[in-house]
Amino acid sequence: MNAIILSALCGVVMMFSGILLKNKSAIKYVAIAALLVLIIGNLFQFYGIYTIDIDSKGLLSFDRTGLFFNTIIFVATLAYFILSGSDIERAGPDVAEYFALIFFVLCGVTILTSFNGLLMFFIGIEILSIPLYILTGSDKKNLKSNEASLKYFLMGSFSTGILLMGITLIYGATGSFGLQSTTIKSAVTGFSSAGILAPVGLVLLFISMCFKVSAAPFHFWAPDVYDGAPSVFTSFMATIVKAAGFFAFIKLFAAKSEDFGPGPAWKLILFVIIVATLFIGNITAVFQQSVKRMLAYSSIAQAGFMLFALYSTNDFTKDGILLYTAAYSFATIGIFSILTKMEDYSLDGFNGLSKSQPVLAFTNTVFFLSLSGIPLTAGFFAKYYMLASAIKGGGSLSLVIIAVLFAAVSVYYYFKVIQAMYFKEGVAATNTPITGNFKVALIVLAAIIVILGIYPTALLGFYYF
Amino acid sequence: MTWLTLLLDVQDTSAASYLPIAIQLIFAAGFVAAMIGMSALVGPKRQTKDKLETFTSGITTHGDARQPMAIKYFLVAILFVLFDVEVIFFYPYAVNFRSLGWAGFVEVLMFVGFFLIGFTYIIKKGALTWED
Amino acid sequence: MIPLLLILIPVVSAILTFFLKNGNAAKNWALIASTATLIVGLYALCPVCKLEFDATWLPLLGSRFSLSLDGLSKMLVLLTAISFPVVFASTYNNEYKQSNAFYGLMLLTQAGLMGVFLASDCLLFYFFWELALIPVYFLCSIWGGEKRIAVTFKFFVYTFVGSLLMLIGILYLYFQTPDHSFAIKSFYALKLSASQQNLAFWLFFIAFAIKMPIFPLHTWQPDAYEQSPTAVTMILSGVMVKMGIYAVIRWLIPIFPSATVKYADIIIIASVIGMIYASLIAIKQDDVKRLVAYSSIAHIGLMSAVLFSLKTIGWNGVMIQMFNHGINVIGLWIVADAIEQKLGTRKFSELGGLAQKAPVLAILLVVLAFANVALPLTNAFVGEFLMFNGLFQYNFWIAGVAGISIILGAVYTLNMVQKIFYGQTVPATQNALEIKGNVQFVLIILVLVIIGFGVYPQPMIDLTKHIHP
User: Fold this and answer.
1) How far is B128 from chain A (nearest CA, A)?
2) Is the ipTM beyond the 0.90 threshold?
């Protein structure tokens, strides 16, 4: 509850900071301070020390996983503010509003990690989505940004409509907004008790969530939106928002994994979706010349891996999604923060970065290695957990092998950037001077990724002990 | 599922129980379609030049109907709609005023507080200043 | 503690090397660090020291940071420990741009290799397996030849696909263990059904086969050897390919005994085809580096065929040959590098009569060439003799076909010696100079090792005699 209330309040504070503070650069520090308060508030609840407690009549329920996920998301946002704060300032005139909108998104995230019924789930999804439509279009003079915003809004609205239809049908069939596993189970495995309505509702729910997390074949909006949005906000959307979407997706469909016995048909649907997502994301990313667009497709590909958590619901899933969120978000935030500093977003724009900016090139390499899932980086354990959960689920070795082959494909395009930075001659130009603070922040982020790669217990230890 | 089913008194949740609703929907849509289609087919048509002109109380039309309008108008209009919709929340409160008691009063005060914060925000942002 | 030191010294010194601004300082520091590792490696040969290390690493996953040194590990650890100072010393005169990064990455590679040979926890093994690959990728891509980027990337993707398949295999086995552990003991204790073995066997074997490499998965190798800087090629062919063979002995055959027996024929036939194929191609080569690369494929093919023939005597040969092949091939690379550095070409067609100008080099090369064709009194003879002995026990015809490759090996090796060193001097070799100093010193030491173990191979046989299928 702390996080929900504080994040909304922080958003309001940010709204007014734009009016009260004349100095634009001070806004960033207010945002960082507000985020720190948010993190501390959330940790208080995590350790059960002091919490604001409002009776939500069973609409919300807080568990350790959700609160821990909140913490990861907030820390990732903190890294995002520190690394990309100055880019947010350059994104447009309404700096305070951008920060406020980001806090509102965080509010949506906190609801999505604690919903206890379809109603709150829907509200969370909406609070999460609406600020994003605005952020996507924040570059008002840029036609691509406008197009992306409109496209995102229309597609988002449709998927919300589908979501609502699904919720309606499930409510109609079961008479409840509850997340009880029996509800889902009867809907999935048997067509007898609840008739045809609940399965159809569940499929609609599933489709709309696939849309939100950009799983194929509902991914078409993602590249255009990620490419059109200002890069700073793409970074936020592709990492934090996406991870939260996944968390909600998994929470919704695997609410109680021990009772949840997905039928074979369900597994088949997921199998097809995972393979399609991996295929489209990876193969299309190979052909991109713009690093930004490549990252957009790679985020689809990474979504394919995160869907593993849905495919097999066991004790690895929870750790896996937590670790994946941390590994993927930290790395992608780092990459985008470097990308927004580059003059040229194409692959050739990175040529020779190791000569002109060795620190940027080195940390960027660590981030890309992490995305590829190379050992000694956090990305390895993220992928490891996902594969382990699928193998433990049993009978899905073929899916795992397909995923692994696509992981090898992903190495191809991730390494293209590394090749450009280290092995090719050129003068990679940055559009702003790189400050020492930025470099230090990058190094800290890279260090976190490496530490998680050597000793993931550092992260999961907090969760378990 | 069971306890909520009992709570909401939903006995029959099968698709078949929705059949009457489906019939009603089909009937409603069919009726509208039939009426429009019939009047288009059966009704008499006599088209003259005068008849196709825009009717403006007998005054001859001149100029374009699409006049440029200040963007501020839309801003004010949308803000009006926003606040107007929020006012709707007061109706249920007014109806249940007595039964909700002090707790309800505090909650509504909070609601009004948020309301005012938003209002202050748009004033401070200059969204309501008509002149530049 | 000793196993840990073998990894820690290279890692720590690698990190320090990255921060050395002065190129020469980095070079000297790398030489000192690798020599220190060598001393520890030699100390590890003593029979009384404690050769195990165990610490908690990932309690949630059931993986421990456990290292151990047995005879097989000792052999390869020793090879790794010897190779790096040899490589550093012999290429001492080469100048690299950003040499601190070069030497740092080399030392990291050493750490990875040491880890692979020491790990007795499967996840840890996988970690080091990858750790050995990443620095090599950067080494080849930054300091390699003209086509380096594409070639190295091919190498990287090949091995990466293999390792990922192995990871699946590891996870699959992990979930079969009753106590959910990655320890080698738990893996050995597994009672897998035939179908489980058949599946997981290939997941593991493809990774190892790519690394060795075994026909038809070898296509990355000649290009990678040719394009890599010579120092890296030495490590690649001298030590790194042994990772595959080591892994088959340690992690494949003991875990999947019945699958091994089932698929042994296929693998042996592929290996033998690879031997003949590589030897035939080697005959047609005009480039020293490519010739040595193909000759290396042929040697590794023989080792793999013998491994899967599962005969004790053959295995003893493989153990010895792993070490000896490393020494010999590094020697050959040193000669190739010396020629390229002095004359600026590696093509036979542009060379000739070098023996008149550089007699010492010629003598040393002839010894190395004899070792490469496994003539008696060179170290390779003992190994190859034992290996063929094993292969004959397995199947007469296969051994016979494999024997052809020895003849072919003699053809191309001696052909190379003749074309480069004898005959008329050509313009390129007109002003050639004798090798001096460090290169000469290192080559003489290697040749002494070759002859020494050729005459008295007993210590090596003793070291690994307890290992048998």
Assistant:
1) 15
2) no
